[in-house]
Amino acid sequence: MTGEARSVAEFIRAEHLSHVFHAGEEDAYRALSDVSLSIADGEFLAVLGTNGSGKSTLARHFNALLLPTEGRCTVAGLDTKETQ
Fold first, then answer.
1. What phi, psi does 63 have (nearest 5°)?
2. How much is the pLDDT for 82?
3. pLDDT digits (tens, 9 = 90+) for 43-70
């Protein structure tokens, strides 16, 4: 590169993403709380954590298997809440 900043397209963006399983029920529990991140197209990301820390829940938001209880998740410019 010649010192110029290279424009990298954003592929995944989570903004204040939260997820509550069984929302409104007695056994409700928060699996994600206020997660914000962006992943550029072609970028690799590793998510590490203990069992039950929310890794799979986060990944399921990226392919719209789960929808945010709060916040927003976009993939390739598409809001996952609007994929239904």
1. -115, 15
2. 87
3. 999 999 999 999 999 999 999 999 999 9
Rounded to 5°, the CA angle 1-45-2 comes to 5
CB 12 within 8 A of CB 63: no
Strand runs labelled E in 1-84? 10-21, 29-40, 70-75, 78-79
Domains of the chain in start order, with CATH, are 10-82 (3.40.50.300)
Lookup: tokens for 8: 């990298």
Name the residue among 84, 52, 53, 69 with its Cα closest to residue 14.
Answer: 69
Residue 19: CB atoms within 10 A of its CB come to 23
Task: Give the separation between CA 22 and CA 3, rounded to whole angstroms.
Answer: 50
Measured between alpha carbons, how far is 58 from 53 in angstroms, rounded to an integer? 10
Tokens 């970028």, located at residue: 43
